[in-house]
Amino acid sequence: MKVLSLSLFYLSIRQSIPIENIKSVKMKKVLIIDDDTRNVFALSAVLRSRGYKYEAATSPAEALLLLKNNADIGIVLMDMMMPEMDGYSLIPYIREIPQSDPIPIVAVTAQAMTGDKEKCLAAGADGYLAKPIDIDKLLALLKTYLQ
After folding, report:
1. Where's the Response regulatory domain (predicted)?
2. What is the CA radius of gyration of the chain?
3. Is the predicted pLDDT of residue 20 greater than 70, yes or no?
4. Domain membership flag for residue 3
């Protein structure tokens, strides 16, 4: 099981994945919502290295705009602790966007105390990943929701 801090994602994947093993994944995009550009960079590096297509938003307003204008987004990886509007408040707005199928939302958060997972799920998240991210769990969630 690989557990890495987000800031170490890029270095680890760059060194451990031969480019010839990366296949293009023909599926919907992943939307990363995180106000910390270092986290966006790290998550996008992991996704890119595995052939996933993605969009990134550093604010809730940007995220809602991307969701409304991109029907090919198939899952949201959302930081729950953002300054202007946290993920708990953003989830209902995402759920109001008309779509043929509801978009799965995975809470990605440093909030890893007892009860935090349940709080995220009660707010409407479909999944939960605590930071530092376990890459294997992330990839398993993506495979489950996107294929």
Report:
1. 29-146
2. 14
3. no
4. no
For residues 32 and 62, is the Cβ–Cβ distance under 8 A?
no
Domain with 92, as residue range(s), is 25-146
CATH of the domain at 44: 3.40.50.2300
Residues with Cβ within 8 Å of residue 136, at least 6 apart in sequence = 1, 2
Tokens of 57: 């938003």
Q: How many CB atoms lie within 10 A of CB 51?
A: 13
Average pLDDT estimate for 117-122: 94
Between 87 and 13, the higher pLDDT residue: 87
As given in the structure block, the two tokens for residue 109 are 């958060």
CA dihedral 41, 68, 78, 9 (to 10 degrees): -20
State pTM to two decimals. Answer: 0.81
The SS3 assignment for 31 reads strand
Mean per-residue pLDDT of the chain: 83
- 8 in any annotated domain: no
